[in-house]
């Protein structure tokens, strides 16, 4: 029976201890499960049977409280078996101490029949225990799978682990008392050899080992994109609580980092764990990589927290073909050894896969590796095998979860349809491959789908979060559909929408209906531009924008200032021209405007090339930033006006060697008025 996804072959030694049968129901009673109604005492052990699902059948989804209910029911029924065993032991002792009697043979045969009936009941109880254990392990695997999904931003109920722990504690009580009962039954020696009972003992012992082993998990995962020389935290938890008494002498948990190949070798080949040699198998050097387990009496949590770990060095494998360091997966390997009643317990577990980076520019591709793995990994697998293609239905869910968790608003059906089109190639398919996702450049582009998607996600989170959450940004829509939707709008001229650029990484553009009834597309703005002037203020400056086309197809256009007003920054009213006596400068502000025909721009939607020597950052040839003093041009003196006109001639096409450059230089040196216009 598999344990958990990454320690299926762990074989700790946990055998040989006895538990006081008087504590049989202690754990189940402490969990306060529902009272079992309608289950009377079982007086004839020969007719006792515990119904169990057929082994090998798929376990149906059940609620954890139902599992706890079934475990308690089985414990109650096993209590009757224990009573029968106690009576058998008394009769056996009486038979050994009594003198010969004419009924001795009949009594002996009666004891054999009673013992056989108890063995049969125990076997049925054990089969039922196995089915219950399988249910609990199934829930733990689901919890771990949800934990991986949470790495992509999916909702995650961490508190359900407490319910799973209660099930583990109840199962531990069940199997411990069953083990004690089997050993007690073996003391009633009526025949020389009892292979069936010996086999049952081995099964129960192995079941207990597996239970203890599978209860050791990573409850707080480390960062899955891990940068060297950066502090991080993680924690492991043992879901047996105080059941084995280990908390009285808590062990120390060690941590190393393993490569994918090392992890595969350890799991699939059942490598024996030797604590002295494990440190030599590490693929890197981790500081503060040990922690002593602590037991919290109030919530029964038995865990070890690593609060200040730091990966100092990493050893990488040789790369093949197009592999990069951002494709290479590692995992943190946690292990410990402790002793229970003179028997050693060795347990270990692996974290979710991590990608190790040394530079920030490695982060986007690393997140592609992690996002794909978290979304599409099988619950049980060899580390860290993953499919290289998925259906669009699967990928669309993963992308929606990722983008929604990062930005606070999910994608619409239209958004997802657009993303699907971006992923398609000449031969259309419902399947999307790993290469299409993050390795192959998109058609007619120099970047991959994931690079484009990640850059947009980052831009939205860093510079447009509030506007995106408020539904002010249409986002993922192609240029043709944007034009069609705008031209169909009943509000006509001045109607606009914001869409993510599909030609530039991390860019957002505005499409609007101009005064001629045509659609104009402003060249994209990126994070560099928003560091100078934010998006909302840029929209406020553009008087050609009047009505925001809604991102919801069922909504109506909204006035620009109503939609974006809450995101405008406070702008000071123009003040009279003031020369700073200290710096000798006049303060300036920034404004954006759309260039008209003849201003090295176009309102037709087909931009002209701007003069490269005068470009500022990523300013498009269709939009400009004007730096101007509070004094307006018409209020300036004639020298200042001449200076502004001369500067404008350079901006709209004068050559660098034009003699007017000298005129501008002289004028700027002598004038108190300064104006700069960039397109």
TrEMBL record:
A GO MF label: DNA-binding transcription activator activity, RNA polymerase II-specific
GO annotation (BP), single: cell surface receptor signaling pathway
GO cellular component term of the entry, any: cytoplasm
Name of the protein in its database record: Signal transducer and activator of transcription
Organism field: Drosophila melanogaster
PANTHER family assigned to the protein according to its UniProt record, in alphabetical order: SIGNAL TRANSDUCER AND ACTIVATOR OF TRANSCRIPTION
Residue ranges occupied by any SH2 domain in the UniProt entry: 468-532
The organism's place on the tree of life at top rank: Eukaryota
Classification lineage: Eukaryota, Metazoa, Ecdysozoa, Arthropoda, Hexapoda
Membership in a protein family: Belongs to the transcription factor STAT family.
Key words, A-Z: Activator, Cytoplasm, DNA-binding, Nucleus, Phosphoprotein, SH2 domain, Transcription, Transcription regulation
Subunit description: Forms a homodimer or a heterodimer with a related family member.
UniProt keyword Transcription regulation present: yes
Subcellular location(s) of the protein: Cytoplasm; Nucleus
